[in-house]
Specification:
The complex is a heterodimer of chains A (482) and B (225). Chain A contains 16 helices and 16 strands. Chain A is an alpha+beta fold. Chain B has an eight-stranded mixed sheet with strand order 6-4-7-8-3-9-10-11, sandwiched between helices. Chain B has a two-stranded antiparallel ribbon with strand order 1-2. The longest helix of chain B has 14 residues. Classes of the chains: A alpha+beta (482), B alpha/beta (225). Chains A and B meet through α15, β10, β11, β12 and β16 of A and β5, α5, β6, α6 and α8 of B. β10 of chain A pairs antiparallel with β6 of chain B.
């Protein structure tokens, strides 16, 4: 067998249905291809390129901004019945590579009709076309022509009659073309290439080459988002938690394997417990960081289940993963499978275990907020920077220290001092150590304060942070130097 | 960290390890290991002098008896907590369980605590609090666990002591003074009361040291700030 020409072999490589091809509309054009003279119409190369056959469908109703999000993704799932290689052309078109499917469906006409039947079954207005190149199919579909072209040699003739507007180029380019008197693609194709490239950029020439199947234009195949979802049915109704735990173990194990195979992790799992009559009990298994570690998943689920009070016996349980998230490089532990972490926990594990039993809100971090009012100068942090990766390289930060020391304890509400305490204060039984520090701030949000803060040491030794409200002249305790 | 010191001791204890100049090395190593159970300085010389090793012990329990907050009970430990977070290579966590008020973040930042490594836990019941303390102490990621208790039984405290030893963490728990005459597994028991001018600190029990009152030249809470 004679080896095929190097050029056609290269074209094969370049056009191989690669899912990792860039998603851009004009992915990685060879820089010289744009303005260089058109590739010679080699018969062999043309046949090699026509290996692909693109079915394009345009949904005119979906272009509007008010159309629901994610609908093209859902239509992709319908289209994947016909070919594994479906790609989205925003805002309102899909491209299906159907060369391999033609034989399965009998003929191109039959396949084309079958795919069209899907859209009409969904009551969607659709314009479709099939051509050996992506852009030709799209342009024909946008023009509303139902073409079934298999031979790349026929493309030029069919495209020539289309209006320029169906290229959906940007408006400035289209209006320039109109003023030049170019209304049909055929008129555009007759213009010199170098002139088009100079006037409209190399993108226009590249588009024409792609449409005429002279230039390869790989598309990224749509991949549906994956979730883990598995269900376990019991033969009889179950109410003992220990039994449920036992049944959950293999599900967790399979979920962890599912995650490991995809190099992914989850931030939360959901457990659905179905009863005979009562509504489904949902248990959220929250994790402190993205993980796919079976030990951590099992740990959290056991803690949650052991605290669970069942309203009724359950019939089945189902484990669902949330959105899969890529693992950060630090969370992939190469040696984890060999010996584990010699029985010691990691910080996220500790946080997870505490949260699973005590509740999400009961475990939190605190951080200072640059704000003068003490009650607004701190806040709770629910998302903990548990992994070391996010901290590495960050210098140890000391907050800008206010001049006067701040107390370790801050009372939730300032406690008003009784009259006799104020009397003591004035008589000098309590020592005034520092002050006053005036804090006057917050006029912009209605919680403005005007206070003079003092540090006071009581006779016994306790130190308090007190303030005098400037308007009412009342005294309050706001903090304790513990 | 205590863990590393123990690893070294284990290696030295291994019969297969060939040691040069056996007699002199053994003497120095043995002495170093017994006295160098790592300690964290309290930041006050008067107190350091009274504690074996010259500071707060690690991997054990400290009990503080006091009836009202505000006598400088947290400031007593803040220098050690800051020190414990500055260990080279890793930053261990601090866990505060059931504090009587909200820990004020700017104040802790002022003292130099790494707030990214501080966890506040608010359990609903005393048992939950003890459980959380046991988990945190035994996890091996915490340098110190501070626990505020209303009252507890001896059994739970012994569990905490075991967890602290296993996890290499310092457990500090605060209890009202009425528990003074109960037995306690803590290595160190302190009593904080109101004094004439400044709060008064008494060492009730100290393993390897002498109990008695500690004299300070200034207020506890003012000393470090």
């Amino acid at each position: 067998m004679r080896p095929r020409g190097l050029k056609s072999a290269m074209a094969d490589l370049f056009e191989a249905p690669a899912a990792e091809a860039p998603a851009a509309r004009h992915p990685a054009p060879p820089p010289s291809a744009a303005v260089s003279p058109p590739p010679p119409p080699q018969k062999e190369a043309a046949r090699a390129r026509s290996r692909h056959l693109w079915y394009a469908v345009v949904f005119p109703a979906l272009g509007e901004p008010q159309s629901p999000a994610g609908i093209l993704e859902r239509l992709c799932l319908h289209a994947q019945r016909f070919t594994p290689w479906v790609s989205i052309d925003p805002p309102n078109a899909l491209l299906l590579e159907i060369r391999g499917s033609v034989k399965l469906f009998g003929s191109l006409a039959a396949l084309h009709a079958d795919i069209d039947a899907v859209w009409s079954g969904l009551r969607l207005r659709a314009q479709s076309s099939t051509a050996p190149s992506t852009l030709a199919a799209l342009w024909l579909a946008r023009a509303g022509q139902k073409a079934l072209i298999e031979d790349p040699g026929l493309l030029a003739g069919r495209l020539a009659k289309l209006p320029v507007a169906c290229t959906s180029w940007e408006n400035s380019r289209l209006s320039t073309l109109r003023t030049m008197g170019v209304n049909r693609i055929g008129e555009l194709m007759r213009l010199p290439r170098a002139g088009i490239a100079r006037r409209f950029g190399s993108g226009a020439v590249l588009d024409l080459d792609i449409a005429l199947a002279r230039q390869a234009a790989p598309r990224r195949a749509f991949a549906a988002r994956e979730r883990f979802r598995e269900r376990c049915d019991f033969e009889t109704e179950v109410e003992t938690v220990a039994y449920i735990q036992k049944a959950l173990e293999p599900l967790i194990e399979r979920c962890a394997r599912f995650l490991r195979e995809r190099q992914a992790g989850v931030q939360a799992l959901e457990l659905k417990l179905r009863h005979r009559t009562e509504p489904v009990t949902r248990v959220r298994l929250g994790l402190a960081s993205v993980t796919g570690n079976p030990l951590r998943l099992a740990d959290v689920s056991m803690q949650k289940l052991s605290r669970l009070e069942l309203a009724a016996p359950i019939l089945s349980l189902e484990l669902l993963s949330g959105r899969l998230q890529p693992l950060s490089p630090d969370s992939i532990d190469v040696f984890a499978c060999l010996g584990g972490t010699d029985g010691r926990d990691t910080a996220p594990q500790l946080v997870e275990r505490l949260r699973a039993r005590l509740g999400e809100q009961a475990v939190y971090g605190i951080c200072p907020v640059p704000e003068h009012r003490p009650e607004a100068a701190w806040q709770r942090v629910q998302v903990l920077q548990a992994d070391d990766a996010s901290r590495r390289g960050r210098p140890h930060r000391r907050a800008d220290a206010p001049e006067m020391p701040r107390p370790v304890w801050l009372l939730n509400e300032p406690a008003k001092l009784r009259d006799e305490d104020v009397e003591q204060l004035h008589r000098g039984c309590s020592m005034l150590e520092e002050g006053p520090e005036r804090i006057e701030s917050g006029w912009w949000d209605g919680k403005d304060v005007a206070r003079d803060y003092y540090i006071v040491r009581q006779a016994g030794g306790a130190r308090l942070w007190i303030f005098q409200e400037r308007r009412s002249q009342c005294w309050y305790v706001h903090g304790v130097f513990a | 960290m205590p863990r590393e010191a123990l690893t070294l001791a284990d290696i030295l204890a291994d019969a297969r390890v060939w040691k040069l100049s056996l007699s002199s090395w053994d003497a120095s190593a043995g002495q170093r290991l017994s006295s160098s159970r790592p300690v964290w300085s309290t930041g006050r010389d008067a107190l350091d002098a009274r504690l074996p090793g010259g500071g707060w012990p690690t991997a054990s329990l400290i009990e503080v008896l006091l009836d009202e907050p505000g006598l400088g009970e947290v400031q007593l430990f803040l220098p050690a907590l800051v020190q414990s977070q500055r260990v080279e290579g890793e930053t261990p966590w601090l866990v505060w369980i059931a504090p009587p008020h909200e820990p004020f973040a700017p104040a802790l930042a002022q003292h130099g605590i790494d707030l990214d490594r501080l966890l506040v836990v608010r359990p609903v019941s005393a048992t939950e609090a003890l459980w959380a303390a046991e988990q945190a102490l035994g996890s091996g990621v915490c340098a110190a666990v501070l626990l505020w208790l209303k009252g507890t039984d001896d059994r739970w405290l012994r569990r905490l002591k075991l967890a602290a030893e296993a996890g290499g963490a310092l457990g500090i728990f605060f209890r009202p003074e009425r528990h003074r005459f109960e037995s306690s597994p803590a290595a160190l028991r302190l009593l904080l009361t109101r004094g004439n001018e400044y709060p008064r600190l008494d060492i009730l029990k100290v393993q390897g040291g002498r109990p008695g009152p500690v004299e300070f030249e200034s207020s506890l809470s003012a000393a470090s700030s």
